[in-house]
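Entry 14. Ran structure prediction on the chain below.
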Amino acid sequence: MMTILKLESEATRGDFAWSLPDTFNFGRDVVDAWARRAPDKLALIWCDESGNERRFSFSEISALSNQFANLLRAQGVQRGDRILVMLPRLPHWQIAMVGCIKLGAIPIPCIDMLTAKDVAYRVSHAGATGVVTHGENVTKFASTQDFKVCVAVGGAPGWLDFDHAVAGQSDSFDSVDSQLDDPAIIYYTSGSTGMPKGVTHAVRALYCWRISAWYWQGLGKNDLIWCTADTGWSKAGTSILFGPWSAGSAVLFYKGAFDPATRLALLARYGVTVFCGAATEFRHIVNECFDSHDLSRLRLALSAGEAVNPEVVRRWQAATAIPLIEAYGQTETLMTIANSMSNASKPGSMGLPLPGTHVAILDDTGAPLPPGEQGQLALRLPNPQLMLGYWNDPDRTASTRVVHDGVEYFLTGDLAYVDEEGYCFYAGRTDDIISSAGYRIGPMEVENALSEHPSVVECAVVGSPDPQRGEIVKAFIVLLGGVPPSEQLVKELQEHVKRTTAPYKYPRAVEFVDALPKTVSGKILRRVLRDREYASNSQHRPA
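Output, structure tokens:
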């Protein structure tokens, strides 16, 4: 059985090599281990926008998750059963997730905003046999007759009341001894194109995701981390649950609408030491006044999922003197490339591969490219962080793999290049590249240039069909409040881009919009904008 002492010693090793246990159960080997070692150690602070607050020690989380695991077992849930966990930011989420894992059931974290159609697809596709949700969401589940267990926070007719049902169970539970390649958790992608994919991770991934907590977030047992990710995102797993608790860090968990001033107030009130937010949040937070908030305990700010524009990073650091560093990852891999406090950052770089991860840039034939040349970013296999595959979709899983000269790679679908020192630079998705008059233009460099203009809050750049050039660069821009759109501003923005980056990349078309289309996780959907541009001209369809 793995011990916490082993975790801490491995975290400081300079000569990193994967050292995986024979078996692993996160609930037993992390949560229960901390509960034995430091029963009163703070694990979770929960609060909401109404001022309610609850605090949980590791021993309390250990006991409550044991009770939840016993509840599942009493209802007939078995090892390998899939359980939808569709909860807002409530402490019941952590209890349910850890309880499922202790039993060996496979939780499927889902965002609270799913529709009945979304729910029905996931239940059917995953063959789910149980659900844990909030009483307000039970109407989204058309039929529960095939479920072994239905639990609702707050209760509902015909459903078990979470708190009441858990309270009646024993707080002792013998966790299963899970094998490293056993399915452990399923995340459904946002489904921006086609139906969502069930990204299935193994037990080994739950063990390995601590790597980003150590080497990117720099977490330790004295930290309090606040990550604002939704409970249905894979980022919540690594930065709210598996990563921080593996490092012994306490977690702040806030249930409330996004408000930039409230973000700063909570950071100060609770003395957060590490803050992880979405790029969109930082774009708004930097427009706030920082003077009235004591951020003296905050030592690090983080972002992932979508690049933070360099101008936003500059403004954040100018206002706080606190580093803002980014990492790259996917639902299929979680964090694999990151900037860190131990390595010098390079402007515009995603950073260096995390320990245990080796990347390559591949051409269209799958052959590795030399430094400086752009191609598809790939992970060299084997890598224990990588998903087992897409649930019940072996063909799609196989499409993500390529072998060249006997070496197998996982294809990320992202374009990038690597410099001579190994730093990785993101260039966009493989289907985001704009082909204009023979030039291949990545949207991010244009977006970064536009974001430096004081009138721009957010922007997205896509290719728009053009009979002479094939495509032109078009920018969709959200302006700062009070700034009126005008032809003069369009020209000013175009000239600004010409001065900031290669002149041929400037947006020949500009459209001012109130908001940009985004996934539920906050990523800008360039594809939606691009498809909209092509929809009016059937002769020009995106590849």
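Residues 58-74 form the longest helix (17 residues). Will compare against last week's run tomorrow.
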